[in-house]
Amino acid sequence: MCRWFVYRGAPLRTSELLLHPVHSIVAQSLNSPLGAEPVNGDGFGFGWYPVDGDGPPGLFHSIEPAWHDRNLRSLAEAVVSPLFFCHVRAAAGPPIQQTNCHPFRNDGWLFMHNGGIADFDRVKRDLVLAVDPDLYPLMLGTTDSEVLFHLALTLGLRDDPVGAIARAIAFVERVGHEHDVRFPFQGSIATTDGDSVWAFRYSSQGRSRSLFHSTDISDLRTMYPDESRLSLFSDDARVIVSEPINDLPGAFLEVPEASVAILDAAGYRHAAFAPAGS
Length: 278
What we know:
By secondary structure, this protein is an alpha+beta fold. It has one domain (about 1-270): Glutamine Phosphoribosylpyrophosphate, subunit 1, domain 1 (4-Layer Sandwich). It is about 25% helix and about 30% strand. It is built from 7 helices and 13 strands. The strands form 2 sheets. Strands 3-2-4-1-10-9-11 form a 7-stranded antiparallel beta sheet. A 6-stranded antiparallel beta sheet has the order 5-6-7-8-12-13. Strand 12 and strand 13 form a beta hairpin. Helix 4 packs across helix 6. The longest helix has 18 residues, at about 160-180. The radius of gyration is 18 Å and the shape is globular. The relative contact order is 0.17. The mean pLDDT is about 95.
């Protein structure tokens, strides 16, 4: 389907993680060993929050493959940010166009998704009609992921992110079952308000796409004292990824099936996750 990446920590030149690691998200756009598709070349998106926290997140989308987009490389070398998202897309049906590239933005929020709503063409009408009328005009693309984001906004994402995602997926499953879709939802989701990050791993079938987060950097420095690149990162530097961006054993921990990882200034917290009412 797709691959995605999240960083949160002290302000960092974004190229240090988007471009330079051996298995960076840009490298994964061309070769993704753990992905449902090895190539994710149907466009990409890059979203970042300013260092001073003033204003909405920046956003750059392109339908070019990430591995040879010069604009992305130039931008990543120039942008310094304390929190940034990147997503590379493997289109599963909706056309290749900028409005279908993740992450999606609403005011200060970013959202991205790897996976899909099964038989989306059959359930799309019911899902779209459930979106708040004030939010409906803001859906500019044709993907199931964008509809899911606006459903979550409709159902209270700003005040209760975990509950809103649970209610949105529960609604997707209910509508899917009404249309005889056996396993309506599949995916990993990341969303942020610019401070905390919520990363979900869930599927109706119980076989979700891969999702990992980094080990604490202090532990990594102890494990790998000769790894000079670790000195680039602050003690609170953490990443959440569709798949690991390096080959260091123990550097990444798998996020369990049917769970949410919450990342804030205190670090990671984990909780079981299930659609509301399931």
